[in-house]
Amino acid sequence: MRTFGIEEEFLLVDPATGMAAPVVGELLSRMDATGSAEAAVRLVHEFKQEQIEAVTGVHTELAGLARAIREGRAQADTLAREAGVRVAALGAAPLATESRTVPAARCEALQERFALTAVEQLTCGYHIHVGVDSPAEGVAVLDRIRNWLPVLAALGANSPFWRGVDTGYAGYRTQLWGRWPSTGPLDLLGSPEAYRALVGQLLRTGVPLDEAMLYFDARLSRSHPTVEIRVSDVCLRAGDAVLIAALARALVETAAAQWRAGIPPAPTPTATLRLAMWQASRSGLEANLLCPVANEPVPAAKALATLLDHVRDALRRHGDEERVEDLLTELVSRGTGAEQQRRTARGSGSVEAAVAEAVRLTHQD
Questions:
Q1: Keyword Ligase on this protein (predicted)?
Q2: Cα(86)–Cα(18) distance, rounded to whole angstroms?
Q3: Other Cβ atoms within 10 Å of 197 Cβ, number
Q4: Are the C-beta atoms of residues 160 and 341 closer than 8 Å to each other?
Q5: Are 41 and 57 in contact (CB under 8 A)?
Q6: Are strands 218-220 and 226-233 parallel, antiparallel or unpaired?
Q7: SS3 260
Q8: For residue 115, what are the contacts with CB-CB under 8 A and spacing of at least 6?
Q9: CA gap 31, 24 in Å, rounded
Q10: In sequence order, which residues have a C-beta less than 8 Å from that of residue 146 and are 6 or more positions away?
């Protein structure tokens, strides 16, 4: 069984106003004081004081990962409630706020170097680590999953609002995140040596602060034997997070099998993948996506069916097929997180109501 684990970034919000609340330091101090730092899911700070991140352990079974996702959300919210705030799974801060950088040396260095891009950064992503047997397998996987990542981004689209307005995008976090100079899809690489050469070349430019700042859509982890997939907004509902994690693991398993069988990666230009990701960010599942095989516009339902067919054998090997089909049917029937946020805002006439509903759905089992 190929292993996987996840990282979910959450927004800390004032339940009365929906505004982001800069209290992560208080939360983590409280956690250390009570000894809950030894919990199965680790809670850590991110870049801004209005965020908290839940990091699971390593899992082989989807059911175990699903439990960890729910536990991470519950643990974070328990701490948040003690500080008078709540945890919300929102891909971007919906209301205008002057966010505060975590007082750590690296965070302060990022803000100093990247100026307004860093000042205005307040987004929450969802990162999935999938185990690989070697750097060679890892790079082979990176080469073979790149076409499929925009579909995962569309499934997880959960950031329609920014600074109090509807952006017109389902996943506006992708647009905000793209302001950093080291984001986006990778070119085809072919070998670990080519990957390391690219990393070295980028670091020698002096633009990225360090290797951790190479925010590729998918990358080799620096500290674990994993491929890290980084394209999705944090998911509004825990079940959607489970679905995307299962699909990500199946994509990695399928890519590794293709590599072992000598099947070459699709030679899609990186510029085309940027367009595919923009389209996923713009419309989520509500309009066309670029087909991961033909690179032509197709209805989102067809793109999803193509993805499911592509990874079906891997889902069966992991015992995830039925669960994934159920979760995917559920997501498509009610819409992405972005669609749910917009429905609430339209029905109530306020973005603040969408934040309050997001808090509820974040913790709905």
A1: yes
A2: 9
A3: 12
A4: yes
A5: yes
A6: antiparallel
A7: helix
A8: none
A9: 10
A10: 185, 186, 188, 217, 218, 265, 268, 273
- Count of C-beta atoms within a 10 Å radius of residue 61: 13
Tokens coding 75: 């643990």
Distance (Å) of CA 290 to CA 5, 149, 248, 252, 327: 28, 11, 18, 20, 22
Q: How is 145-171 classified by DSSP, letter by letter?
A: HGGGHHHHHHHT--B-EETTEE-S-SB
Residue whose entry in the numeric block shows the structure tokens 């891009």: 117
Distance of alpha carbon 168 from alpha carbon 36, whole angstroms: 41
pLDDT digits (tens, 9 = 90+) for 117-152: 999 999 999 999 999 999 999 999 999 999 999 999
Distance from C-alpha of 289 to C-alpha of 143, rounded to nearest angstrom = 20
How far is it, in rounded angstroms, from Cα 226 to Cα 39? 23
Distance CA 197, CA 201 (A): 6
Domain residue spans of the chain: 4-362
CB 4 within 8 A of CB 248: yes
pLDDT (average), residues 186-209: 98
State whether residue 340 is helix, strand or coil: helix
Q: 3.30.590.20, 3.40.50.970, 3.40.50.1370, 3.30.565.10: which CATH number matches 4-362?
A: 3.30.590.20
What token pair was written down for 320? Answer: 């995830």
Question: Could you report how far apart the first and last alpha carbons of the chain are, in Å?
Answer: 26
Residue reference for tokens 């749910």: 340
Please report, as a single letter, which amino acid is at residue 364.
Q
